[in-house]
Every structure is written in C-alpha cells, then in structure tokens.
Here is the input.
Amino acid sequence: MERVITLNGQAGSSLIIIDGSVGRLSTHLKDTSPFVITDENVERFHRRRFPPAEDIFVLKAGERTKSLKTVERIYRRLLDGKADRSSFILGIGGGVVCDLTGFAASTFLRGLDFGFVPTTLLAQVDAAIGGKNGVNLHGYKNMVGVINQPRFVLCDLSLLETLPQKELLCGLSEVIKSAAIASVEFFEFLEANWEGALERKREVLGEIVYEAALIKTSIVQDDEKERNERKKLNFGHTFAHAFEKTCGMPHGEAVSLGMILSVHLSQKKGLIPASEAMRIRELLRRFRLPVRFKFGRKAVLSAIRKDKKRKKGMIDFVLLKSLGEAMIQRVSFEELEELVDDLC
Ligand SMILES: NC(=O)c1ccc[n+]([C@@H]2O[C@H](COP(=O)([O-])OP(=O)(O)OC[C@H]3O[C@@H](n4cnc5c(N)ncnc54)[C@H](O)[C@@H]3O)[C@@H](O)[C@H]2O)c1
Here is the structure.
C-alpha cells in the first residue's frame, strides 16, 4: 500500500513515497523527460523499468565513484545533452548515486530540480531522505556537499528483490539504529519480525521502510542543518567510519560495531539499563550483524582521531538514555581509548 510522507525543510520540500511504483514515475515527473543517473548494477537489473529519458548516464558502482571527478563528468554530460534550467535530474540507484545526483543537480546552473528512486534498503531508509548531497574528498567521506531537498523520493520495494543480501544487511543496520534512537515500538516490531525482514517479506519491508523514513523525516524537519537533533542519526557512526577505513568492513557491519561501542559507553555512564542494552545486542545478532571485535585498537584509535567531527580533543558522541531515546554528549579521547580497550 502506497504511503506518502511530506518533508518540509528550509532547503525545500520532498514527497517521500513509500511502496510506490517506478511505473508511476510520470505522475511525479510532470511531463518532463529527465536526465537519469544510475550505476552499472542497477542498470543491468532494472533498465527496462526506467522512464523515457533525455539521457541515461551509467556510473561505475561503488564508493570510489563518489568523487568530484565523477561530478565533473556528470556536468560534462549535462552540457553535452544541453540541459537547461528547466531540466530534471533523476537518480536511480543506491546511496552513492543519490548523493552524487543531488550534488550535481544542486550545483549545475546553480541548481536544477531533482528526484530519487532509491534502489537499496539503505538509500530508501536513509541516504535518499534528508537533503544531504555530496561527495568524498581525499579519502574523507562526504567532505564536500550541500543540503538541498529532492522534489520526490520514490521507494519501490520490488527494486530490492535483486539486492545482494550483504547490502540488505547494511540497510537493516541503519534501520536498527533508527529504532534504537527514536522508537521503542518500532524496535519491538523488529524484534517480532526479524525473520520476515531477512526473508524480504513485502509487508514487513514496507513497514520497515515507512517507519524508518518517518523517523528520519521528523528528525530532519526539526534540525535540517544538523545543529543538534540530527546528530542523533550518527548513533554508531563515529566509530563506524573508522572501522570501515581501517578494517575494510562493509558499512552496515561497521555501524553494528559502532552501536555496540556506544551502547557499552551508555551503560558505563549509567544511562541505558542492562536489559535494554542486551536487547540491542540480541537484535543485531539476529540480523547477522557483528557484535564482537576482531581487530587492533591502535589502527581504530588513529582513524577516530581524524574524524571530521572532532573538536579540541573531544568528540560529539551519541549515547542512549534508554531504548528509543538518544542524547548527545561530548566525550574525550581518553574515555574513548578506555572504551576501545574494554572491547577490542
Ligand atoms: N545523504 C545521506 O544522508 C546519506 C545517508 C547514509 C548514507 N549515505 C551514503 O550512501 C552511500 C551508501 O549507500 P548504499 O549502501 O546504497 O551503497 P551503493 O550505492 O554503493 O550501493 C551498494 C551496491 O548495491 C548495488 N545496487 C544498488 N541497488 C541495487 C539493486 N536494486 N539490485 C542489485 N544491486 C543494487 C550498487 O550497484 C552497489 O554495488 C555512502 O556513500 C554513504 O555515505 C548518504
């Protein structure tokens, strides 16, 4: 059943269509023939479902493509295709395609309209929503970007059928994050439906995408520019980026371990009760995400120090007061070192 959420931000409004159909894209494109940006895997599986387009630009899949060099290639392609101020740019793909599309569209000719058809679970519940668009720079993630809302985000659950299981798990890790920081009820739904989620039962995935999108939308509306509330979405991510970089782990697994660390610190500080901390560990385990560390503390700590969010030896860290309630606290590197010592 199609459900629509409206995100009203300072940087524009977005219609987020959950359980919509790619076949009905024309309703949202309003007679414009878009410039489509996608990647090679999405093109291979879903090309026949793309709408009629001015041009289809197929990028190499993967995080390395998320660079200024690719943005320049997109500009060149738009120039060659004679894109003008009335052109519409449509990103069909995972988070990499959405981040690139939003950035290129927001900057070409000082800003063209754009929309997303996210094709990974992670993009449907997270990357495509909230208006952050950007690219990596010299190995640092998302260093260059803009906040600008897409006109629409159309989530078609059938696109997820071709998604490799490891990519599904990446998305589920973000889903658990959303529930842990914002909704006990959603967390309970995940506890009751983890098998259905892993089996990609449509009604379960529909509920998951809707609830996670609702949480992200409401947080972004309160704090689009990430002054305070939006930082809560970084739960599990401060360490996750370090794990990805130093240990080459997939993002979802790294977020899982990042959440384990944050939950441990929350418990140490007398915040979240042990029983609730245990439920988070158990749910991650059920979703086949890692809950134990197998790599060296030195590498992890040095990567953390380079985190772009660090401020004068302190780092903004998302902790849990309880299941479904997050808070931000400035934590010193000494505390973090102790934490890594406890768990690594
Ligand atoms: N803008 C934001 O707010 C935000 C939030 C979270 C993450 N992100 C960004 O999102 C990116 C990660 O997104 P992702 O996990 O979607 O990665 P991704 O875009 O690299 O996609 C993962 C893989 O799945 C493939 N794929 C995509 N859809 C498919 C489908 N339907 N069937 C088969 N294969 C498919 C892709 O080709 C790729 O190989 C990162 O760059 C991250 O920084 C952005």
